[in-house]
Specification:
Layout lengths: L7 H19 L8 H11 L6 H14 L6 H19 L9 E2 L2 E2 L1 H5 L1 H20 L4 H11 L5 H11 L6 H26 L4 H28 L2 H4 L5 H4 L5 H5 L1 H18 L8 H12 L3
């Protein structure tokens, strides 16, 4: 049975298994000195995440090349390292001050604040160690910019923090979420396509798709925060309202937010029209992002 023959659920399970195995290979084991930091890194990294960013990276590579691309798995794993580092730091008392992540106590609750900070730093640093070994400076640049302060993830986090003291406007909302969540999701797809040697037209189409699903992902995240329980989410529900965060439901209301997510889904599908059936899995992943309940 080929990858194309699998159901979406089977396909995701197989891809997650590959990503987890490569992360296990790449990240130092718990018995490697200094043991505490490696244990803390792996505690958060293997806490059961959905691996959406690595999956998007791998599938963008396949879509662009029309086949499996050597080395794509290690590239995809660097995205999960960056994402996990951001979650560890987000949960710290100085930021969102959360005790629960992926259904488990957060890193600082288990290892203390200092070690949690270092675990996040270590995953960030290690991602670029792994990516640097590909020998492609374009990938390093993509990930650095998507993670940084010029329209990247950290910029979005700063806007998010400062936005709690500002009026909740459409402009502020877009500025926060295109950077905080959207930049790394879009980067995941671009890195896969670049690694696969995508041409300008293919890279532009995959980038547009990434922009749409990045926005859809955050809209749904905001909706779930007010409609699901902590048990369903695996993290503390209702934190956005409690911290006066600028969210899509706060600005547009729930029904308009749901329609906006659907619009982004449709635009994501349209962006892939030039790939035909070769982009089947990317379309399915867009649907998964919009239809998810956790």
């Amino acid at each position: 049975m080929t990858l194309a023959d699998l159901s979406l659920k089977q396909y995701i399970a197989e891809q997650v298994k590959l990503v987890d195995a490569d992360l296990d290979r790449l990240v130092p084991g718990e018995n490697v000195e200094p043991r505490t930091i490696h244990k803390a890194m792996r505690y958060s990294l293997f806490a059961g995440g959905k691996r959406i960013r690595p999956l998007l990276c791998l599938e963008a590579a396949r879509t662009a090349a029309g086949l499996e691309v050597e080395g794509a798995l290690a590239v995809a794993c660097t995205l999960e390292m960056i994402h996990t580092y951001s979650l560890i730091h987000d949960d710290l008392p100085a930021l969102d001050n959360d005790d629960l992540r992926r259904g488990r106590p957060t890193s600082h609750k288990v290892f203390g604040e200092a070690m949690a900070i270092l675990a996040g730093d270590a995953l960030l640093t290690y991602a670029f160690d792994v990516l640097g070994q590909t020998g492609d400076a374009r990938l390093v640049l993509e990930l650095a910019r998507a993670s940084g302060t010029l329209g990247g993830m950290i910029a979005g986090q700063v806007h998010d923090m400062e936005g709690a003291a500002q009026p909740a406007t459409e402009e502020l909302l877009e500025k926060i979420h295109r950077a905080k969540t959207g930049a790394l999701l879009r980067c995941s797809l671009r890195m896969g396509a670049i690694h696969a040697g995508a041409g300008e037209t293919a890279l532009e189409a995959i980038s547009r798709y990434g922009g749409h699903i990045g926005l859809a992902f955050q809209i749904i995240d905001d909706i779930l925060d007010v409609t699901q329980t902590s048990e369903q989410l695996g993290k503390t529900a209702g934190k956005d309202a409690e911290q006066n965060k600028v969210t899509f439901p706060a600005v547009y209301g729930l029904e308009r937010s749901r329609q906006m997510a659907e619009d982004q889904r449709q635009q994501a599908h349209a962006a892939l029209s030039g790939f035909g059936t070769g982009a089947r899995r990317l379309r399915e992943l867009a649907d998964l992002i919009v239809d998810r309940t956790s």
